Amino acid sequence: MERDMETPFPPFEPNGPDDSARGPRLREIPLRLVFPNLITILAICAGLTGIRLAFENRYELAVSMVLLAAFLDGIDGRVARLMKATSKFGAQMDSLADIVNFGVAPALVVYVFALDQARSLGWIAALIYAIAAGLRLARFNVMAERENKASWQSEYFVGVPAPAGAMLVLLPVYLGFLGLATDRTFAYLSSIYTVLIAFLLISRLPVWSGKSEGNRLRRDLVLPMMLGVVLYVALLMSYTWEVMVFTVAAYLISLPFGARKWRRKYGTLTIEEPGIGDDDIGRHI
Question: Rounded to whole angstroms, how far apart are CA atoms 32 and 60?
Answer without folding.
Answer: 34
